[in-house]
Amino acid sequence: MNIPQVSVPRVVIIGGGFAGINLAKALGNKPVQVVLIDKRNYHTFQPLLYQVSSAGLEPDSIAYPLRKIIKRYKNMYFRMTKVRSIDADANELHTDIGVISFDYLVIATGTKTNYFGNKAIETYSMPMKKVPQALNIRSLILQNFEQAAITEDIATRKALLNFVIVGGGPTGVELAGAIAELKNHILPKDYRDLIASDMQIYLLEGSPRVLPSMSEEASKKAARFLTKLGVLVHCNTFVKDYDGKKVTTNLSLELESETLIWAAGVTGDTVKGLKADALLERANRYKVNTYNQVEGYSNIFALGDIALMATEDYPNGHPQVAQPAIQQGQLLGKNILKLIAGKPLKEFKYVDKGSMATVGRNKAVVDLKHFKFGGFFAWFVWMFVHLMALVGFRNRVVVFFNWCYNYINFDKAARLIIRPFNKLKK
Amino acid sequence: MNIPQVSVPRVVIIGGGFAGINLAKALGNKPVQVVLIDKRNYHTFQPLLYQVSSAGLEPDSIAYPLRKIIKRYKNMYFRMTKVRSIDADANELHTDIGVISFDYLVIATGTKTNYFGNKAIETYSMPMKKVPQALNIRSLILQNFEQAAITEDIATRKALLNFVIVGGGPTGVELAGAIAELKNHILPKDYRDLIASDMQIYLLEGSPRVLPSMSEEASKKAARFLTKLGVLVHCNTFVKDYDGKKVTTNLSLELESETLIWAAGVTGDTVKGLKADALLERANRYKVNTYNQVEGYSNIFALGDIALMATEDYPNGHPQVAQPAIQQGQLLGKNILKLIAGKPLKEFKYVDKGSMATVGRNKAVVDLKHFKFGGFFAWFVWMFVHLMALVGFRNRVVVFFNWCYNYINFDKAARLIIRPFNKLKK
């Protein structure tokens, strides 16, 4: 494995998401050896992934090389590989590149798309959890536009220009808004051979309102913003099936569409090998105590989306968003050092900094603890917070410039079909 | 096909490279209908492709949506499709999306990689003519680094870190320099588990000097710059074979390498259907007269790399670089309008603006007609000229910022393996 054996304990972190990199930073140049493992060589800033899908940003704006994060710390190693299983008794991890031993193991693998067992939807729909998936959506949208421009059959053209987004959480809402902007600002200029009104964006949400995790006020405003942009919002609507051509729902609503974007749910991206008890099957999340220790283990931890820490305020676990992951990562760094030093650990207490979602230019909603607002100012706050949260000065500048450019020019500049997406080959 | 039939003549342009877009612009809002056809939906700024390969730039910096260029002109249509053949008698083009009729046809398809019939090299080497190919090289370089970091066997590690670039023209020289910068500046920081001296970059050139199309002075300077960066330059060296592991040459030189980048030659990307006479087989370029009319045709033209206009100064045709393509495109736009108006055409006269190549930071060579220079000032001129030549204000700013950032930080920021490259699946 080529990682030197040293006298200090080795902490192995699986996953370079928000939890993983914040934990790694907290252990930087401390008396431990850190091995960060990820399938990819970069950290993904998930909250802006939808802007890659909608041709607003290129991947390098929201992805950040993991080695660039850890190079500052002499005690850190990175290995790009897939973890196959954990051998908890032997304190070993089995990976595609061999066995890696650990003293402390931290599972920060996050979530993956949940199709709720529907194979047809898994086959034909477009997920948006990873950068290549976001690029596939970008390619498909633009391919559909090109194909629609040459199609004389009206029904076929409409099916190419019908975009159905399933899931009214922040991802679905933000993506629907961004695709609506493509319809409103790009289509009329770039595709004079198409009629913008032939294009429809549907947002289907199973619960009674969009952004169900936010306040009712935010939901109402977001729905109004979406409608203003021309998005057709359908609440209380479940997708029952999709064969690549037709979307059927629990209601009479049926949609002919070449594109179904699936943002309806996630499930834990678990690793094999831990005791069955450790996992809450329903949610596919590891049960952890307030120190993020996985139930039944003293040296194995889980963080962020994959961890379920049932507390009084959050009996079903914390929301699967960036903030709990970041905060848990930071605290666990300190706690691991305390554990090694034999000092008492500090309990995790989630500080809810509020939540927000953007719908389009000048349109966002923000829920703070004592203050809820929407519109231009919310949109401004949303931008500022996301810019500051991006990893690295360069990415901030590139995103900021792109946003300014896109805003002034009503443009989305990355309208490139670099790798055409082939639905049949999926 | 959905393109309206109008009373003015239709000019169909195949290819949105330098020649195609300059011709299109010259015909913008003129009394012709223009149909631009390309397999891709973007223009590629080829001279900077090597910076995508070496993680310095993302594709959106050097690729530009073709629809964004033509949207300014009301008489223009774009179709993303592959041309299968020309039916010159019927004035029709057969494409993947059906038949497109033309009054005037302009072939501006450029060139593709030439493997000189060697199937093994075609199978195992990495070409760099297109954006996806450049991204494949980027992925492979970074994958090799990751794999080398976990390999204990020294020979295997060295083969992973040996990069062999074949072809000492501007592409090969610039790419070799950029990869050397990865070795000199990125490897020691990002990959502390690797020893930079295990990495070698070989540049193999068949002729007696690198940059054979430039002055001897430029060749000498470039070779010196390359050597300074640690590139091992081998002139008079032809690659005979490559099985994915070992490179054999005409000399005793044999190299164990996982990566062979093939920049050794191009050949015309011709279209089926024209008379055999029209093509000069050796070069795979269409013989054209001084008005770019293809031999034997009055309404079919060829431009740029694919055209061979034998003149007194250039008996073997103009160099296959951007300038002749741009100048021919601009002139042909005027000539087509003259042809329609029954006015006499203007002969093409190439204005050689000089040539240049960059090797690395502060290192470039420039050949002007009466003045040749190299070093920092040449590098500055190279950057300025390339920035200004980029299409679109946005791309200029993004590239400029990235260059400044990379220069100050000795960094290349797009070190992302977005789509892992699988050599076996190629």
Kindly summarize this structure in a few lines:
Chains A, B: GO terms for molecular function: oxidoreductase activity. 2 copies of one chain form a homodimer. The first copy, chain A, has 426 residues and is α/β, with parallel strands linked by helices.
Structure in words:
Chains A, B: It catalyses: a quinone + NADH + H(+) = a quinol + NAD(+). Chains A, B: Residues 10-329 form the FAD/NAD(P)-binding domain. Chains A, B: Its EC number is 1.6.5.9. 2 copies of one chain form a homodimer. Chain A has 426 residues and is an alpha/beta fold. The first copy, chain A, is built from 12 helices and 26 strands. In chain A, the strands form 8 sheets. The first copy, chain A, has a 5-stranded parallel β-sheet. A 5-stranded parallel β-sheet of chain A has the order 11-18-12-13-14. The first copy, chain A, has a 3-stranded antiparallel β-sheet with strand order 6-7-8, with no helix packed on it. In chain A, strand 20 (279-280) and strand 21 (285-287) form a beta hairpin. The two termini of chain A are 34 Å apart. The interface between A and B is large, with 49 and 50 residues.
